[in-house]
Every structure is written in C-alpha cells, then in structure tokens.
Design goal:
The protein has 534 residues and is of the alpha+beta class. The protein folds into 4 domains: 36-140, Uridine Diphospho-n-acetylenolpyruvylglucosamine Reductase, domain 2 (2-Layer Sandwich); 147-263, Uridine Diphospho-n-acetylenolpyruvylglucosamine Reductase, domain 3, CATH 3.30.465.10; 267-380, 2-Layer Sandwich (Alpha-Beta Plaits), CATH 3.30.70; 494-534. Helix content is 38%, strand content 19%. It contains 19 helices and 18 strands. The chain has helices at 18-28, 39-44, 61-66, 73-81, 97-110, 165-173, 191-197, 204-207, 210-213, 240-244, 278-291, 303-312, 316-328, 346-360, 371-379, 386-392, 406-422, 459-479, 498-517; strands spanning 57-58, 90-92, 113-117, 136-140, 147-151, 156-160, 177-178, 214-221, 224-228, 253-260, 262-263, 267-275, 297-301, 336-344, 366-367, 395-405, 431-437, 444-454. The protein has a 7-stranded antiparallel β-sheet, with helices on both faces. A 5-stranded antiparallel β-sheet has the order 5-6-10-8-9. Helix 17 runs antiparallel to helix 18. The protein starts with 17 loop residues before the first helix and ends in a 17-residue tail after the last helix.
Length: 534
C-alpha cells in the first residue's frame, strides 16, 4: 500500500545504518524527530467539498487527502504536521479520453479549476491546490495506463499517460522492448508526468531524455482535442511536441503518449571507478562524454558525496579494505567516485569497457569492478526512502538541480554548495551539501546537489529553514547562468525564477500560449507561470 504521508510503499524500508547517524552527528550535531499527525487528525481538517455531484468524481475526504500534496520537502513537512490544506474538492479517475473531455466540459460549466495528476511525485509544487474561490478537481490518469499499440517496424509504442514506470517497462518488456527512462522517481512517476515536466532518466546517455523519446500523442484541452502526429523528422514549422513538453498541465490533459522504444539490451553492467580528485574526475567525465563512447550512463560524485555514499553503504570492514586499496592506488581523501553504465550487445559492452578503461588510464582512475555498481543498481530507486530514515533521526534532506555549460560546472557547483553551507549560519546551524553530475552532455552537465540540515524545534521553523536555503541557492543558480530546473520542472516553487531564464519576451510568449488554450486560467493555475485563477 502506498504511504499516505511520505514516499513509496509502506512495506519498503531503507534504514540508515549506525554509521550514518554517527556521521550526521559529526557533521551537523545531534537532532531528534518532530511529532507527527495521524490520519484522523488530517481527516478532521478536510472541509466539505464545494463541488456538485458527478458520476465520475469522488468527494471522499480520504481521496482528497491522498491527492493534495506531492513529494517536495514542504509537502513532506505539511503531511507530517497535518497542515495539508488546501485540499482538492474532488478526485476523478477517468478511464478514457472521452471521460476526460466530459470532465473538462463539466469544469467549464461549473467554473471549476482542474489539476492533472500523474504519480504525485512532484518536488516543485505541480499538483498542489491553491486557495481560491473556484472549486478544484484533481484529475488522476491512474486508470489510463495500458499499452494501446506497438509499431514494431517504427519502434513506436502508444501508451496511456497514467502508466507508471514499472507498468511502462513491464508492458514493453513483455514485447521485447524498453523505453529506457529511469528517473529516481521511477517507482511512482508516470509517462505523462515525464513528458509535461521534461523528465530525465538515469541512463539518458543511451536512451536520451524524455523529449527524445516523445514522438506524439493526444492532448485534451478546453478548446478541444489536439492530436500530435508522429514523424521521424519534420521541418514544417515549430514542433507541436515542444508545446506539450514542459507544459505542466497548463494547456490540457495529456491522455495518450506515443514514444520511441528500443529493443531490450542483451547485456548491462554498472561499474565504479575512483578518480584522485574533482579537477581530474570532472575533466575525465567531460572527455568521455565528448568522445561519445557507447555508454548508457555517466555520473560522478564530488569528494563529500563519495564519502557519504560509502558511509551509507554500511559494511564498515569491507569499506575499510576498499579505502586502504584506493589509497595505495593514489585515490585518497579527495577521491571522487564515477559510476558508469554499459548497455547493449555483449560485443558492444566489451568494446565500450575496453575503450573506457583506455581513456581513463591517463587520469589515474582506479576500477573496482561490478560490486559497487551492482549495489548502486539495487538501490537506484530506493534513495527517496532515505528521507524517512533521516527524518526519524531528526534531519531534513532536500535536493537542488541545474545544468550549465562546461566552463561553469565547477564554479556553479562550488557556489551552490557554499550558499547552502552559509545559509543557516545566522541561526548557528550547519548544512551539509554534497553533489554529483548525473547527466553528462558534450556541451555541459547537470549538477545535482543534496543537502541535509537539522529539523527545527517545530514544523514552522523547519519550513522556514528550507525556504531560506531554497531561495538562497536558487538565486545563486540564476546568477551562475544555470537553468532553474534540469529535470524536476517548474511547478510553483521554481516559477519565480523562470523569467530570468526565459526573458521578458519569452515569458510573454508562454503566457500567450497558455491563454490561447485556457483563457480563463482554469488548468492548473499558478503553476509554471505565477498567475492565479480569475
């Protein structure tokens, strides 16, 4: 069963080992968890629905609770504190595009705002209802999750937009194919959500980001149905797909998605290498990306994240032996761990590995085989569960991400981490940030920073600490010329920083596009653009 006030399935646990607690106390000081609200307390806070009855809409208070928040840290704090309002006034789970159209027409007639809902994994405030005079309908695509068609010659699959990651892969794997899109939220996030937030999967080096996979589909809007045809390529004006990518529910509801799929690979390996320091490691990973070796994944952790990952791995005796071995090979306290994915036929994997080792040799890289790679692969979708483990120890954890061109990668990384470290100094509090480059391009790289801080004396103080850190780091990202979001979308949290990226004329164009499809600002108001309902 899905957890109502946190991440994932209730039966899944990812406990922090004793070394983690010791490590956090050393870095941040001792802390303790805050008391948590129960289901009954939250249910008692749900007001009566403002919606008229409709056969496709549930007014059940518990369903309204379950669809009221995403997975950002503010959402997490609100769920734990029991301060989750405002709630949607109702939840619909249509089973067809026709039912979606029916619900949108009803929303127009009854003056209702609509929030499209995928897997509820947003970390930027995409799915949260806003206070306003209009009733709010959350429209979940959960029941529209099937494989509708598969064109084997063109390698195109048509799927319901509500299919989550495991459903997507299970349906395609049964036919001998894969989409290859594996974000950390894979367990819960959905195909439609990936498209409208411009998601990136862990093996984007091989399969591409979702914009390379998205070939077409069907969008239900308040103005009618927009079908987006598929072409191998086209020069016939602006690409309609680009209007849908990153639209975050402002234009309509994506119901069917056509994606470019790939045959299941014969072989896949993940391997860890250690580089002596960040300067060497970042230079090595840039060269690998620009050589365009047939790798499926490249990521490198800075020294602090490398140290943190090894602590979290547990197995102190084995890690101690690894430490001794790495030091003998020249990888000491400043070492950085590189994780590499190799995917394809056995011949291609062997060739790629040989080329990889040859290219890394001048950088003093130390390979450790597949053991750490298998450990990473096993835990690749379990990391979000660590938030629960750390919270029970009294620590809050959040992430920031951006992307910049190569000359700005290290300066931006250092500036972001510095801003976070200094962010709570005036309160006498420490912040522990650590970073990896998770998606590598010839032009530049993403920068993915995790930061941990002590919970405050109550939820209000903890939220205030997050707000201060989020704002400070976001301002630094903008100042360093980075995108405000590489893979998490804009939502509500990133919207104030979007004008710096798009410019005045660009923002006017985006506003005009949204107004064309939704002149009454009925579709997910206040997200992507900081506009509210009429």
């Amino acid at each position: 069963m899905r957890k109502w006030n946190g991440w994932g399935d209730e039966s899944t646990d990812f406990p922090a080992n004793l070394g983690v607690k010791k490590f956090l106390i050393q870095e941040l000081g001792e802390s303790s968890a805050l008391p948590e609200a129960g289901k009954d307390e939250v249910l008692a806070s749900v007001p009566p629905s403002r919606l008229p009855s409709h056969p496709l809409v549930s007014l059940d208070p518990w369903q309204r609770v379950l669809h009221s928040r995403g997975q950002s840290l503010p959402d997490w704090l609100a769920m734990r504190a029991g301060t989750m309002a405002p709630f949607p006034d109702g939840v619909a789970e249509p089973t067809s595009a026709q039912e979606v159209r029916t619900l949108l027409e009803w929303a127009k007639q009854e003056n209702i705002s609509v929030i499209p809902y995928g897997g509820g994994t947003s970390v930027a405030g995409h799915i949260n209802p806003l206070s306003g005079t209009r009733p709010v309908l959350t429209l979940s695509l959960a029941k529209m999750n099937g494989l509708l068609a598969l064109d084997r010659e063109s390698q195109l699959a048509t799927m319901g937009a509500g299919a989550n990651g495991p459903q997507v892969e299970a349906l395609l794997n049964a036919e001998g194919y894969t989409l290859g899109h594996f974000p950390q939220s894979f367990e819960l996030s959905t195909l439609g959500g990936w498209v409208v937030t411009r998601s990136s999967g862990q093996q984007s080096l091989r399969y591409g980001r979702i914009e390379q996979m998205f070939a077409g589909g069907s969008l239900e809007t308040l103005q009618g149905t927009m079908d987006i045809p598929t072409f191998p390529a086209s020069s016939a004006g602006p690409d309609l797909r680009e209007m849908v990518l990153g639209s975050e529910g402002r234009l309509g509801v994506l119901t069917e998605v056509k994606v470019r799929v790939t045959r299941k690979p014969e072989c896949e390996e993940f391997r860890a290498f250690f580089l002596p320091n960040w300067a060497v490691g970042s230079a090595a990973i840039r060269e690998l990306a620009q050589l365009k070796l047939p790798l499926s994944m490249l990521r490198i952790s800075n020294a602090d994240e490398t140290r943190t990952q090894l602590v979290m791995a547990g197995h102190e005796n084995q890690i101690a032996l690894l430490d001794k071995y790495l030091r003998l090979r020249g990888a000491g306290d400043e070492r950085c761990m590189m994780m590499v994915g190799l995917t394809g036929s056995r011949a291609i994997v062997r060739f790629a590995l040989a080329q990889l080792v040859r290219q890394l040799r001048p950088y003093g890289a130390v390979g450790t085989g597949q053991l750490l790679g298998k450990k990473w692969e096993f835990n690749r979708f379990r990391s979000p569960y660590l938030r629960e483990s750390l919270w029970q120890l009294g620590y809050a954890v959040d992430t920031l991400e951006t992307a910049v061109d190569w000359p700005r990668v290290t300066p931006a990384l250092e500036a972001i981490e510095s801003a976070l470290r200094e962010g709570l100094r005036d309160e006498g509090e420490q912040v522990f940030p650590f970073t990896h480059l998770s998606h590598i391009y010839s032009q530049g790289s993403s920068i993915y920073t995790t930061y941990v801080f002590r919970a405050g004396k109550d939820y209000k103080e903890t939220l205030a600490r997050w707000q201060k850190l989020k704002h400070t780091a976001s301002e630094v990202i903008v100042k360093m010329g980075g995108t405000i979001s590489h893979q998490h979308g804009v939502g509500r949290d990133h919207a104030p920083y979007l004008p710096a990226e798009k410019g005045e004329l660009g923002m006017k164009a985006l506003t005009a596009l949204c107004r064309h499809f939704d002149p009454e600002k009925r579709m997910n108001p206040g997200k992507l653009l900081l506009d509210e309902e009429n």
